[in-house]
Amino acid sequence: MYQVPVYWGNPYYIRADFVPVWSTSFPEALQMIKEAVQDERNDELFYDELINLAPSQEQVAIIESIRNDERGHNQMYREMYRALAGQEITGISSEQYERVHSYIEGLQRALMGELGAVEKYRRIWFGLPVGIYKDTVFGIILDELKHAAKYNYLITLNLR
């Protein structure tokens, strides 16, 4: 006869439901994907402005690589939304674009934006079913963390 290992505890114990603070329903996750894609126009303006302010070709190349990753993320989110919701994402954000006052300020804003995206995308990840879409969002989260590290590098490079 099979015995339950002691460290598993009492198999007849019923625990209270645990719900993480970032718990998200599937419809909420779809809405968050839609919002993430609709904000892309402001993101494009922001990255173009940062690229124009960058003091060296090395820094331009780093920001361009981040911008290109973000374009890929938006395309993947569009495709996921189409597959999961059966609709295209239309419309753009009504939020006004806020210009950058200095390169350092722009880098700091970009860093905080990447970290904010990690939090938002974690909620999206939690609301998706197990499989390719959830795995794709996890990959996007890893890219956002990589971008944050690159922005930290650029901030450090420019504060010397």
Class by SSE composition:
mainly alpha
Radius of gyration: 20 Å
Strand content: under 5%
Q: Main sheet, how many strands, which sense, barrel?
A: none
- Apparent shape: globular
Secondary-structure element series: HHHHH
For the terminal residues, how far apart are their CA atoms?
68 Å
Q: Count the E strands.
A: 0
* Mean pLDDT over all positions: 91
* Relative helix content: 55-70%
The DSSP helix count reads 5
Outline the low-pLDDT stretches. none
Short description:
This protein has helices at 26-38, 40-53, 57-85, 103-127, 132-158. By secondary structure, the chain is mostly helical.
Question: What does this protein structure show overall?
Answer:
By secondary structure, the chain is mainly alpha-helical. Helix content is 68%, strand content 0%. The radius of gyration is 20 Å and the shape is globular. The mean pLDDT is 91.
